[in-house]
């Protein structure tokens, strides 16, 4: 889908949304529901011309609904961002917990472990260095040295 197709789709969606908003305003007016503050603003800006009040009110009410929708979208986006941030922190905590558990296990066998940019380096009691890139590799190594230690 090209840029122009996206623009056409956005424009179409905007028209549909606007039509729904105008229908909502018409429904409110038919039921006698008015936002008093907006009605007063329309009266004030109609220059004393009665026939301008209703069209101005409709314009203000449509704008108000659009603002409410945008506000709700902003709140939802902020919640989404906060949730992503919380999830990231939880993942990092889980990774830290896993790292310190591995460190404790390795310590029992005289080994040390260091975090690297990617993966970890385990330093054996003989000062040999083993590099691991995945948790699976590290877990397998810990299992291996625990079996060797039992023998």
Describe the structure.
This protein has helices spanning about 5-30, 35-45, 50-110, 135-150, and strands spanning about 110-115, 120-125, 130. With about 150 residues, the protein is mostly helical. It has two domains: about 5-90, no CATH class; about 110-150. Strands 1-2-3 form a three-stranded antiparallel β-sheet. Helix 1 crosses helix 3. The mean pLDDT is about 90.
Shape call: rod-shaped
Mean pLDDT score, rounded? 92
Strand content: 5-15%
Number of strands: 3
- List the domain count as a whole number: 2
Give the topology string: H per helix, E per strand: HHHEEEH
Describe the main β-sheet briefly.
3 strands, antiparallel
Uncertain residue ranges: none
Helix/strand structural class: mainly alpha
Percent range of helical residues:
over 70%
Our count of helices gives 4
């Amino acid at each position: 889908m090209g840029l122009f197709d996206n623009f056409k789709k956005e424009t179409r969606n905007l028209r549909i949304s606007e039509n729904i908003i105008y229908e909502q305003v018409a429904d409110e007016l038919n039921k006698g529901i008015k936002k008093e503050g907006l009605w007063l603003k329309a009266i004030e800006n109609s220059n004393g011309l009665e026939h301008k009040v209703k069209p101005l009110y409709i314009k203000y009410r449509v704008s108000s609904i659009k603002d409410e929708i945008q506000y709700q979208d902003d709140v939802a986006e902020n919640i989404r961002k906060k949730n992503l941030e919380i999830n990231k922190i939880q993942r990092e905590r889980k990774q830290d917990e896993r790292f310190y558990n591995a460190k404790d296990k390795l310590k029992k066998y005289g080994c040390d472990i260091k975090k690297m940019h990617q993966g970890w380096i385990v330093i054996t009691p003989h000062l040999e260095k083993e590099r691991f890139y995945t948790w699976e590799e590290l877990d397998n190594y810990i299992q291996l040295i625990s079996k060797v230690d039992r023998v």
